[in-house]
Write a structure and sequence with these properties.
By secondary structure, the chain is α+β, with helices and mostly antiparallel strands. The chain folds into two domains: 65 residues, Gyrase A, domain 2; 123 residues, Beta Barrel (Cyclophilin). Helices cover 20% and strands 30% of the residues. It is built from four helices and 13 strands. α3 packs across α4.
């Protein structure tokens, strides 16, 4: 693990893979280190944000080096189920790019076992690993200027749900009514969190 400063109030720990990032994220949160105000995992990094008035970065760095990582982060007892109507604008295009039928694209996407790698891009946007390799397709060459909230999409090795309306270049497979981001939700506005498991459930009647 390599740890370096990220500005005046944070440390960035660089690790070898996503699993280690999740294990370090869990260990830092469990340690209850004084003065840490946020812990943000990435694909192979963990950002530790501190309150400079309450802690010293070099002391935090030393504590990080001494932390014992769990074998695996504690898993949620059940996956988050996201109901999806698979009527997305890019289903046919994904079928053409992969050589699959549209029905097989939907079946493979809905049968995946996904884990939230990290959050980014916009509030509540979870990058989900576990997409069937046959569905690994590039982003659109020209992003859309508007993607509706609830759009279920894929790009490269990831799947995701757009929590809010925004521009975007991912391939759209469907849509859900489930709110991925709700400022009034407690304890967290984001439905997804790093390490959580996710299932997509095909349904009819999603608005």
């Amino acid at each position: 693990m390599r740890v370096r400063r990220a500005g005046d109030a944070a440390l960035l720990a660089e690790v070898e893979d996503l699993a280690t990032a999740h294990r370090l994220h869990a260990a830092v949160r469990a340690a209850g280190l004084a003065g840490i105000v946020d812990v943000v995992p990435g694909e192979r990094t963990v950002l530790i944000v501190t309150d400079p008035a309450r802690c010293d970065l070099e002391r935090v760095r030393a504590r990080l080096a001494a932390l014992e990582l769990p074998e695996r982060p504690e898993a949620d007892p059940a996956p988050v189920e996201i109901p999806v109507r698979y009527d997305g604008a890019d289903v046919a295009e994904v079928a053409e790019l992969t050589g699959l039928t549209a029905e097989e694209v939907v079946r493979r996407h809905a049968s995946g076992e996904y884990v939230v790698a990290y959050l980014g891009f916009s509030p509540g946007f979870g990058y989900l690993r576990g997409l069937d390799p046959a569905l690994h397709v590039p982003r659109r060459s020209t992003p859309r200027t508007f993607v509706p909230a609830g759009s279920v999409a894929i790009a490269g090795p990831y799947s995701a749900v757009y929590p809010s309306s925004s521009p975007g270049g991912w391939r759209l497979l469907g849509r859900t009514d489930l709110a991925l981001w709700d400022p009034d939700r407690r304890p967290s506005p984001a439905l997804l969190r790093p390490g959580a498991r996710v299932r997509f459930v095909p349904v009819e009647g999603v608005r």
